[in-house]
Description:
heterodimer, A: 621 residues, mainly alpha, 3 domains, two-stranded antiparallel sheet, 2 strands, 72% helix, B: 121 residues, Helix Hairpins, 73% helix, elongated
Amino acid sequence: MTQWAIHSAWLIPALPAAAAVIGLLLWRLIPGGPAVPAIAGSAASLVMAVLVLAEVERSPGQVHQSSVFWTPTGGIPLAIGTRIDGLAAVIAVMVGVVALLVQIYSTAYMAGDRRYSVYAAEVSLFTAAMLLVVVASDLFELLIGWEVMGLCSYLLIGHYWQSEGARAAAVKAFITTRIGDTGFLFGIFVLGVGTHSFEIGRVVADPAALGHSTITAGALLLLAGVVGKSAQFPLHVWLPDAMAGPTPISALIHAATMVAAGIYAVARVYPVFLAAPVALTVLGIVACITMLGAALAALADDDLKRVLAWSTVSQLAYMAGGLAVGGWTAGIYHLLTHAAFKALLFLAAGSVLRSVGTNLMSEMGGLRTRLPVTFVTALVGAAALAGLPPFAGAFSKDGILAAAHARGGALGNAVYVVGLVTVFVTAAYVTRLVARTFFGSYRGALPHVHESPLVMTVPLVVLAFFAIALGLPLLAHSYGISRWLDAPAGSRPLEVSVGSVLLTGAIALCGVAGVALLHRRRPAEDPVLVLGRYARPLAKAFWVDEFYDRTLVRPTRALARSVLNIDRRGVDATVVGTGTATTLLGSALRRAQNGNVQAYASGLVVGVLAIVVAVSLAVAR
Amino acid sequence: MHLSLALAVSALLFGIGVYGLLARRNAIAVLMAVELMLNAANLDLVAFDAWWRDQLHAGQSFALFVVVIAAAEVGVGLAIVLAVFRLRETVAVDSLTELADRDPVRAGGDVDAADEVAVGQ
């Protein structure tokens, strides 16, 4: 009975999945409505995850794998099962916490929504899919969760399907991530065929034995999926648009599921990436570009949720950069802290949006007195995002930078320098966000702005607690996050020194102070205007969307139109023309059948005479 | 009696029959024309039977069959003509054109409507 929870770890994804089915089909029978199975499913899953973590804690360094083989088709066997180690257990708890809080928060945020039951079931399914990715023991099992997440993100982003923008954003998210997923699928093929097994344990056991080219190809293909899912350049364009969905969904997507899955997948098969330095270099370059670019884009956007979305892209790039330089533990640590403070910031943003009825920061301002709980918790989240010690983000971000510095070389130094610059930009846009939303005077039109109900503020407080607490245990080296996470061999341990924390903290403070001064001088004006004409490329996110529109979307549309024309004028015209010709011929022949019997008989007589004459002539000859 | 005489009479009868079939408007007259044609054929059968001195008298047997069948046919035909007369109060063949296949588009209506007209009358 000692490892009861680990043997039952399959319940972690199964419970929310069951909650989704029950919530969708049977919610009318449940007293309390669709919220009850949704919350119960997440809560039960969280309890299971915590039990599993407690048992993993007792046996550190062990990997608990149990799987059942299915489809014995003769090829490479496919297994379905669970692979529990420190990483999986910790991430499962993280997903469980965020999902539960999002479900609770949604009961108030989505109150009165006609499609709430569908929404709650989709959130449950989303959670289940992410948890399946987390505990999967087989790459194909992981892929199932991965793809179901893609579907759920499509459904949830398009929740408000009556709006054109939400539909377009949903399709964009689906197609963009699907481009990467194709690579991911083929990466799984390469690794699976190479090792004759899709089991993660077998794949990561000795990746170097696969041969240099196979492992590099496999890692690069997996990377394509990771870049799509975790919204890294050049497939980052879907994430800011995904803000068209309900805000709690943004919190879920940005903190615990979907984008975290990409980073998690890299961490899960990290030995494969360690054996393929080329893939790690590519990941590092992508991370550098995304880190700074997204932070700059966040600096100029006026939409509160889009600023947060760009910051997610930027922070994910930190994690990717950390993994690229070997800072495995630091990257996962940042994934955890980011989950806490980004979920907090999004839920706080949801609270603000619900109160003021707009996404635009130019119509907010001065909300700190009207939304006190939201303000204080958002401040905690913002400080954690900006990297101000002692909040969680500071230590995890610093761990990544320390790993990059320790690695050295061109890649390590690039990640280190770009990371430091991004710390400054991050602090600047976070300060701008807080100042524009909560300070100054209210610029909107609503006469009364009230704090959100308790159901929405309590999750904020819980997440604020995590955003602070996740930073604390690190100070004591013996009991840190790295004790739970069993880092793979070859990765760098998490090192956080007081000096480097002070350095990044000072840089962050510079960013905060700069924007704060600008805002103090002109409280009504957007601080980004100080950049003058350089603000425009930032607000346009360096025209990447426009570039894709010109080079990909429009040519594809033109091609589709020409194919449609060929179909209409060629294929359709042939089919319809056959019908028309037959009808015309029929109406010509129809004239003969005029109903006059004597006319028919005349034809008969003439025909017989003709035959007689013809036969006579033939016989006579 | 020479065969050609019988054949000439037969041809004449048949010609009259064809004329009646194609030209007369009265359905009873058309039936009578058909009878003329049948009997022209009968005359041929009998004449050739005699000419070839057939031991089995196949021609005469056939003629008898034709007579019987023609009687039955006239019975049925006249019954139809009577029924038509009761329904339409006319037996003019050229006005009984309900079975014509009219162009549904040019007739200005759909097929169902055309069917209803046919049934209703």
